[in-house]
Specification:
single chain; 443 residues; mainly alpha
Length: 443
């Protein structure tokens, strides 16, 4: 090596401009007196250059680069080289070798190895490590034949420590296929990048149940009612503990998607994402009650027929024999029987308003319910209507007979909220406010 080349490589020809720092250190090491503009001695630069060259992997790489083609015919030589290459480049696994570029391999002494394999590095790796031959990403870059696909799937079962029967492939995920080098098989014509299609095409003679694939069944298969029923029967027991069809009422669409995985998304896509619609289409013989599901379809309660159907069902469920029996129904009764959304949306959380609209021909007395609508007692006409009714119920003949009526009697007739909240617990104030034209005498 020429001295000028050493200086150019070491960047020390004209850059020594600080006499108090770097030039003094160089002079101390070389034993001479270097001026700030004088480069360090050639001996010092040569020693630094030799040490840096010795610390790089070039020595081993040059040894491999000098080997002829006959050297690479021995599998042991290729194995030693590739293991050294993995350690030298700090690769996490042998499979990472296939990601190396030709220029990287040549820089580390593998040019003649590439020539031995007609510059097909993947073939070199697969021949050297046949235990990796089940991985499609360490095979020759051409469409793998059927036997190669089958070997890949069987090798994947062993790699994932799954049962070696073909049914073990039901649990293979998309991520497991990609991470194990199976991406090429997913891109084969007809596989549509789907694990289920790829497996079924590789083993066409095996009887497959598409609904069992964890990675998701092909979308077209969900047109088959039998396939959908098998899937719902299985997932209902395994994921939701459904002992009967009625158990599906407590399963929400969100929970169905979360626990059902890709297959749940796939089958719901054919039913506008509506679990209730899916169940009705699959189990047509079962009588489904829409409001018992966690959510009714959008606009369901806007149809008056659906509202009437709900109250007819609720009446039978609560043992309502006559219209008068509705007075004993509370808001809690409606909410506990899947009517909370209806009551809140259409009737302002009031059973009174609901009964008035469902049975408009009946004359309803709101105070006979457990709760009247909000601020109902604040209206003077409602107070008078109640007190007039009390006058009749207590068989009074004239207004002065109110002097013999106790507060408890009015409370028993449903006027507790009126007396307590509107008139500070005074029946006298209630009467004077409601009937201001009457001359009251309380003596």
């Amino acid at each position: 090596m020429r001295v000028s080349a050493v200086f150019a490589t070491s960047r020390c020809s004209t850059r020594w401009r600080k006499p108090n720092y770097r030039s003094q250190r160089i002079a101390g090491k070389s034993g001479g007196n270097c001026s700030p503009r004088t480069p360090p001695p050639a001996s010092w630069c040569l020693s630094r250059t030799r040490s840096s060259i010795a610390s790089k992997p070039a020595t081993n790489a040059s040894q491999y680069a000098s080997k002829d083609v006959a050297f690479w015919e021995h599998a042991q030589n290729r194995r030693e080289y590739m293991l050294w290459l993995q350690a030298e480049l700090a690769l996490p696994s042998l499979v990472s070798l296939i990601k190396l570029t030709h220029s990287k391999i040549q820089n580390y002494g593998g040019k003649t190895l590439l020539n031995h394999y007609s510059r097909c590095w993947i073939t070199a790796v697969s021949d050297t490590f046949p235990e990796l031959s089940w991985r499609l990403d360490v095979q020759k870059p051409s469409p793998p034949p059927l036997i190669a696909q089958q070997n890949y799937w069987k090798g994947l079962l062993r790699h994932l420590n799954l049962p070696e029967s073909l049914d073990g492939l039901y649990t293979v995920t998309y991520r497991a296929v990609v991470s194990s080098g199976g991406l090429p098989i997913l891109f084969l014509p007809g596989n549509d990048r789907m694990v289920a299609k790829s497996i079924m095409s590789a083993f066409p003679d095996h009887h497959w149940d598409p609904s069992l694939f964890v990675a998701g069944a092909p979308a077209a298969l969900w047109n088959d009612k039998t396939t959908k029923r098998r899937f719902l029967d299985r997932i209902g027991k395994e994921k939701f503990g459904a002992e009967s069809l009625s158990s599906w009422y407590r399963v929400s669409g969100r929970e169905f998607r979360r626990k059902g995985g890709p297959n749940a998304e796939g089958v719901l896509a054919f039913h506008n994402g509506d679990l209730a619609e899916l169940l009705r289409s699959v189990y047509e013989d079962h009588t489904w009650i829409p409001w018992l599901f966690s959510q009714v379809p959008a606009g369901f309660w806007d149809d008056s027929k659906n509202v009437s159907a709900y109250f007819d069902w609720l009446g039978k469920r609560l043992g309502i024999a006559s219209v008068e029996d509705w007075y004993r129904v509370s808001k809690a009764d409606v909410v506990s029987n899947a009517g909370g959304g209806l009551l809140r949306r259409k009737f302002g959380d009031s059973v009174v308003l609901a009964c008035q609209q469902i049975f408009p021909k009946h004359e309803w007395l709101p105070w006979r319910f457990k709760h009247v609508p909000q601020r109902w007692w604040a209206l003077p006409e409602n107070q008078r209507k109640f007190l007039d009714w009390c006058y009749t119920q207590l068989n009074m003949k004239k207004m002065d007979d109110w002097r013999h009526v106790s507060i408890q009697q009015v409370v028993d007739l449903g006027g507790e909220a009126l007396i307590k909240n509107q008139h500070n617990g005074s029946l006298r104030r209630a009467l004077e406010s409601t009937y201001p034209d009457h001359q009251w005498s309380w003596i």
